[in-house]
Amino acid sequence: xxxxxxxxxxxxxxxxxxxxxxxxxxxxxxxxxxxxxxxxxxxxxxxxxxxxxxxxxxxxxxxxxxxxxxxxxxxxxxxxxxxxxxxxxxxxxxxxxxxxxxxxxxxxxxxxxxxxxxxxxxxxxxxxxxxxxxxxxxxxxxxxxxxxxxxxxxxxxxxxxxxxxxxxxxxxxxxxx
Length: 177
Prior knowledge:
The chain is mainly α. The chain has 6 helices and no strands.
């Protein structure tokens, strides 16, 4: 189950993180890291909370084989993201991280797409393209692209999920024999 509420909340958190840099200095590594660290962990908390809420409402178990496979598929992308983040901060290249994070997120989405609706595959491709664009645009665009891609992308996902869940189920007509 993908949660529309989680998409909307995570999108809002990412937009807020990006907007914080209107007042904060993104070139300060500690400030940059603290804001995005907070955004990441708040987002993870929201996603876990909303996922638990969704499966409880549906009356299905949380820790199923597909759920375990999704977590296993995400581990390489998350590990890669953490290691590249550490490397970038150690070498004063933290403003390149938004593009790297988008690429890693896209890889993670693609890795989990076997167990997810088609929108997850599409989101993975979009994040990879956005990550490449963000790296190409350079550090001056890093915080704006975080708000646009992570924030806007998750807001769009949430709205899309809300729209699809509100449509009435169509009656399937029996095939003519």
